[in-house]
Design goal:
The chain is mainly α. It is built from 4 helices and no strands. The longest helix is centred in the middle third of the chain and has 22 residues. The chain starts with 7 loop residues before the first helix and ends in a 5-residue tail after the last helix.
Length: 102
């Protein structure tokens, strides 16, 4: 038996948690704290808007695989400067994967 197809809201929730972890790494650079948190808040709000609107949709298995791979790449980032670089890129990857404009 195949596992149930996750809902879009579940994938977006994982993306927001991963993005928060990325922001936490970026916060290690004290001078960038406000910038990092502003980026996180803006992108988290955008992902929440998509989740509110489309959260009950089932996810295409290919999208699940793509986001699993993107999340694994993000989780491997240890350098806070690289984390900051990805704060805008990662959510855009998520949005494109789920068929939303970045």
């Amino acid at each position: 038996m195949l596992p149930p197809t996750p809902l879009l809201r579940d994938l977006l929730e994982r993306a927001v948690v991963t993005h928060r972890d990325l922001a936490d790494r970026g916060e290690e650079i004290e001078d960038e704290w406000s910038y990092v948190n502003d980026l996180h808040e803006a992108w988290a709000a955008r992902l929440a808007e998509v989740s509110d609107r489309r959260g009950d949709e089932p996810c295409d298995p290919a999208v699940v695989i793509a986001l699993d791979e993107a999340i694994a790449e993000i989780e491997a980032i240890a350098d806070p400067h690289r984390a900051i670089d990805w704060l805008s890129t990662f959510p855009q990857i998520v949005l494109i994967a789920v068929g939303e404009p970045a």
